[in-house]
Structures are given as structure tokens and as C-alpha cells.
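pasting for the record
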Amino acid sequence: MTGRLAGKRIFVTGAAQGIGLAIAKAFLREEAALYLIDRDAALLEREAMLMSQAGGDVSWTAADITDAAAIAAAVAEAAKAIGPINALVNNAGVNVFNEPLETSDEDWSRCFDINLKGAWNCCKAVLPGMIGAGGGVILNIASTHAFTIIPHTFPYPLAKHALLGMTKSLGLEYAPKNIRVNALAPGYVSTQKVIDYWNGFADPDAARAETMKLHPGGRIASPEEIAMAAVFMISDECPFMNATCLTIDGGLSVQQHAV
């Protein structure tokens, strides 16, 4: 299908690599106009230039989602570049995994500043325009950590649980304004972050095999599979989906024990 996102002017965070980049490319294939941000200015420019040269309606700027003023400025610039934003994908995030009592104040703040406060900064920046325009859609990229707990991953699940709570709260608050707020919860995805995780073990191949073994289908998702779900959730094909979360983990969070 093509044209599923025609008329959507979408602000995507963390768009220079991984799931965010896959989402941006999928959105462009469906004829959306995009404004992309990422902290990695060089990588963002390289990827955005490639998309632009391929004919995509894409603008971009380097910005840190923890900086509310910078995000407000980016949203204002986006309105000039592609038109008023009527969709947001809060994709930017960071893994912060520790034993609870080994978690420093700095790690705690970093985890919540990026995974929760940063997402709120973006919501806060786009919501007034959406309200004024009579509607919009926000998609928060959560995680299966938003409703399950894996030992030794503190405080990341706390931030993702809170992100899911924010999704539900904003979804209910702004439903009368024709604004849908939903979350997408991937499990393991074959991004560089996951590869780096495997490479942190003495035997990366064995670590990879253990991860695959956790999944009923014996594999993990590709970024493109997450992106296809994001297209659906941003599109007008699910107009009554609001304040909820779609899980894409191959059944990982349903299975009680690995086989």
C-alpha cells in the first residue's frame, strides 16, 4: 500500500538509527512529511540527506529531547519546514540497566530524563498545535519492560512503566480534542544496541543464541517490523485506538518459561 500517511506531518525523535530510522523510512514510503531529530548531528544529517535525495519530504535538526527549550524551538521550525505537526513519534530512549542498589543518582536521572521527561517535552511542544488544529496522534515507543520486569535492568523498567502511564493519561485527557495517544512495545529488536549487548559477553554467539531461545519463534524482530506497526498506529486506519499499547515481541512476554 502507498499513501497511508499522506497529509501526516510527523515529528520523529531518535531518527538517526535503529528503530527510529526504520520508522522514518517507512513513513516516507507512505508519503508522510517528516521532521527528524537526534542528538547525533553527523549521523542524522547523513541519513536524512539520503532520504531527501531519494525524494522524501524530510527536514531535520540535531536536538536533545531533554532540553525542553530546544524541542519547542525544533517544533516551531518544523512547522515552517513541513507545516504544523499533526503526529509525533517519541522514539528516542536509552537503556540504563543496573542492580537497584548499584544505581547511581546520575544513572537514575539519565534514565528518567531521556526515557520519560524527554518524551513529555516533545508531547508538551506539539499538543497546543494539535489542539488548535482539531486533532493529532502521538505514538510513544515503549518496551515490554513497560509491563514486565527483568532482574538487573533497574531503573529502565520504571521509566517505561511511567511512559505507559503517561500514554494512558494523555490519551484520556485529550480524547475530547480528537487526539489519540498510544504506545508501541517492542521486545528484542535487531538494532545496534542489541548487538552491542551481545558483544558485551565473553561469547557473543552464545549470548545471541540464548536471546533467540527466549522467543517462541526462535528469532527477534527487525526494525522494519516495528516500523510497519508504527505506520498502522499513526495512520487513520485505527481511529478508535487510544490510550493503549500494542505489543510486538513475537510472544516473548506471554510465554512463562523458555522452552
